[in-house]
Structures are given as C-alpha cells and as structure tokens.
C-alpha cells in the first residue's frame, strides 16, 4: 500500500485530495495544526473505508516539522508528499498587517520548504516518489489586492522549479499545481471573494490533480 502525506489535509482541497487518494487504495497521512479538525476529518474518511493517520504540527516551525516527520517515518514510508497547506490575506497593500505578511511567507514559503527538506532524502530512497506543490494561479501572474499572497506563491513556484532541476536525476518527480479559485474555508475570513459558492468545488480540482499527476508534469487548470 502506498502512502501519501498531505499537509493541510483536514479541510478544503487537502481533504478532497485525501478522499481521492484513499479511494484508490492509498494510506493517507493528513496534517494540520488543529488536532480536533484532523480527528473529525479522519473519522469521516474512515467511514468511507480509508486508512488514515493524522499528525498535528505547525509547518512554520522547523523543529516541530522535523520531529513530526521523523516520528512518522519510524512507522511509515511515504511515497507522495503533497505540500498543500497555505493561507491567504488579501486587500490593498497598506491594509496588510505585519502579522498577515509573516503568516503567508512563513506558512506558504517556509512551511513548504521545511516539510520538503524533512522528507526529501526519504523520498529519494523510494523506488518512485512524487512531490506535488499546490501553488495557485497566484504563482503565475500578479493580481490586484493579492500582492503578498502572490509573492509567496511565486516563491513556491521558484522553489518547485529549482527542486525539479536539483532532483532531475532522482526517482522523485516534482510537480507544481496551478489552479484558480476553489470553494473552500480558505475564504471564510476574507471579503476578497464575494460569493465563494461560485468557485470550483475542491473535489473537482482534487480529481484533476490526482489524474494528471501520473503524467509527471505541472498541472495548470
Ligand atoms: N481556495 C482557493 O481558492 C485556492 C486557489 C488556489 C490555490 N489555493 C491553495 O490551495 C491550498 C489549500 O487551500 P484551501 O483552499 O483548501 O484552504 P483551507 O481549507 O483553508 O485549508 C488550508 C489547510 O492548511 C492548514 N494550515 C494552515 N496553516 C498551517 C500551518 N501553519 N501549519 C500546518 N497546517 C496549516 C489548515 O489546517 P489548520 O488550520 O488546522 O492548521 C488547513 O487544513 C493552499 O495552499 C492555497 O493557497 C487555494
């Protein structure tokens, strides 16, 4: 049985990816900060017959990331890493607080790097492995009222492109996924999107990411 680790797997796109991979027989490891949300999502997935492990840690904290990944690797091999956890704060640049900016850079950029760094050696030792970085169309072009978020996603894109070059001769395939808006809790604290129900369902995007990832190329949708 192959194992996929999905950061931010308790809600939104991460949760839908967990459902999709579990449906195809993967053991799914979902992570996030909030243990209660993780346990609730684990219970839901188990009802659908999934084999699910949870691990609660903050990807902003390098030390916690290392400890959590080391603990997981004592019991499981990981074949696929999906760097999905991410946050967004939107509005005109002057309206963003220092905390908003730190939160986006520390989660989206540093968190993705810390988790990848903790797992890369293990993934290289698998016969075949994948890293899928969930970026966004915000990693492709600039957008009004999204300055710092877009900056963080361009950074994730740069990280992804460089990983591809650095690990080109290894058994790890690196994929960037660039999607537009999805109807997820991501927008709950924001008025940047007026009606999130008009956005695509995350389940639809999860199916596409899952299907296209087998081609080993970036996914732009
Ligand atoms: N929704 C969209 O329109 C959209 C469009 C394009 C790309 N994206 C990207 O898609 C990804 C998933 O977003 P989503 O829409 O599914 O949002 P979501 O429902 O808010 O999910 C975000 C997940 O990340 C986790 N997370 C946040 N900060 C974390 C931290 N510091 N450490 C560990 N886990 C953390 C959250 O769990 P906890 O709160 O429990 O930590 C949650 O499970 C993000 O990278 C986002 O940028 C979203």
UniProtKB/TrEMBL annotation:
Keyword Oxidoreductase: yes
CDD domains (alphabetical): SDR_c
Similarity remark: Belongs to the short-chain dehydrogenases/reductases (SDR) family.
Domain (Ketoreductase) ranges: 2-196
Pfam families: adh_short (PF00106)
Keywords from the named record: Oxidoreductase
Any coiled-coil regions, as ranges: none
Name of the protein: Short-subunit dehydrogenase
The organism of origin for this protein: Priestia iocasae
């Amino acid at each position: 049985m192959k194992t996929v680790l999905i950061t931010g797997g308790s809600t939104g796109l991460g949760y839908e990816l967990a459902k999709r991979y579990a449906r195809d027989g993967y053991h799914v490891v979902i992570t996030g900060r909030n243990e209660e949300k993780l346990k609730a999502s684990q219970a839901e997935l188990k009802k659908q017959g999934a084999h699910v492990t949870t691990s609660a840690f903050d990807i902003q904290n390098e030390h916690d990331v290392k400890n959590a990944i080391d603990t997981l690797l004592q019991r499981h091999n990981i074949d696929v890493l999906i760097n999905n956890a991410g946050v967004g704060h939107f509005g005109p640049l002057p309206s963003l607080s220092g905390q908003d900016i730190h939160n986006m850079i520390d989660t989206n950029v540093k968190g993705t790097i810390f988790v990848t760094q903790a797992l890369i050696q293990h993934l290289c030792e698998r016969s075949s492995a994948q890293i899928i970085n969930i970026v966004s169309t915000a990693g492709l072009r600039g957008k009004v009222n999204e300055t710092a978020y877009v900056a963080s996603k361009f950074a994730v894109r740069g990280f992804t492109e460089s990983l591809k070059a650095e690990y080109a001769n290894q058994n790890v395939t690196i994929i960037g996924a660039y999607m537009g808006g999805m109807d997820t809790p991501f927008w709950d604290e924001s008025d940047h999107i007026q009606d999130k129900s008009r956005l695509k369902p995350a389940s639809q995007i999860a199916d596409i990411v899952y299907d296209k990832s087998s081609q080993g190329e970036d996914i732009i949708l």
